[in-house]
Amino acid sequence: MTFALGAAPGHDGVVTTSPLGLAPVLPVVVLQDASDAVPLARALVGGGLPAIEVTLRTPVALDAIRAIAGEVPDAVVGAGTVITPQQVKESVAAGARFLVSPGWTDVLLQAMRESGVPFLPGVSTASEVVALLERGVTEMKFFPAEAAGGTAYLKSLSGPLPQARFCPTGGIGPGNAPAYLNLPNVGCVGGTWMLPADAIAARDWGRVKALAREASQLERLRPQV
């Protein structure tokens, strides 16, 4: 599975593919301490979740991306909450191999195109989806998923807009993730439930790995085609 724009080479020359095709769940990581980045990433990868979205919501995010990119070769680390062209440049320079935004503008979209790495621009309405399709983008983040209509809304989009595929994020957990993954236009779901705050605070990477392993098995719940 590759992005609409095609697979893009990372800084190491390795082709980066869409996170939609790497695992059923894309962990959405918010880190307060950059020293947690590498052991956390190793726990997620060890649990079967190689694609990791590190959100740019904290001052240490770029350092965390840089550390994961440099020390966890089996991880495909990306930057989330990317909202400015400057963040695009900084994220790619730090080693991000994909970009995720909560929404998009033409200015941001152009910067992401020029970055040379795959990206998931955020949408929450049919009009935004159509606008991206007009611009040649077929893979997107659906955010905030539950607040924007959830599985019913995404299912309603699959008829008139079958070429669009999504990573729904926002309000998704192990209880409702299977319903999203059963939709034909969903490639993966984004979530934080495998990253409980108390486990991060305690640096209980074994627990994170176990939760990641459970999340990685959600693919089995899809109907066989």
Automatic annotation (TrEMBL):
<dbReference type="InterPro" id="IPR000887">
    <property type="entry name" value="Aldlse_KDPG_KHG"/>
</dbReference>
<dbReference type="Pfam" id="PF01081">
    <property type="entry name" value="Aldolase"/>
</dbReference>
<comment type="subunit">
    <text>Homotrimer.</text>
</comment>
<dbReference type="InterPro" id="IPR031338">
    <property type="entry name" value="KDPG/KHG_AS_2"/>
</dbReference>
<dbReference type="InterPro" id="IPR031337">
    <property type="entry name" value="KDPG/KHG_AS_1"/>
</dbReference>
<keyword id="KW-0456">Lyase</keyword>
<dbReference type="InterPro" id="IPR013785">
    <property type="entry name" value="Aldolase_TIM"/>
</dbReference>
<keyword id="KW-0119">Carbohydrate metabolism</keyword>
<comment type="similarity">
    <text>Belongs to the KHG/KDPG aldolase family.</text>
</comment>
<dbReference type="GO" id="GO:0008675">
    <property type="term" value="F:2-dehydro-3-deoxy-phosphogluconate aldolase activity"/>
</dbReference>
<keyword id="KW-0704">Schiff base</keyword>
<comment type="pathway">
    <text>Carbohydrate acid metabolism; 2-dehydro-3-deoxy-D-gluconate degradation; D-glyceraldehyde 3-phosphate and pyruvate from 2-dehydro-3-deoxy-D-gluconate: step 2/2.</text>
</comment>
<protein>
    <recommendedName>
        <fullName>2-dehydro-3-deoxy-phosphogluconate aldolase</fullName>
        <ecNumber>4.1.2.14</ecNumber>
    </recommendedName>
</protein>
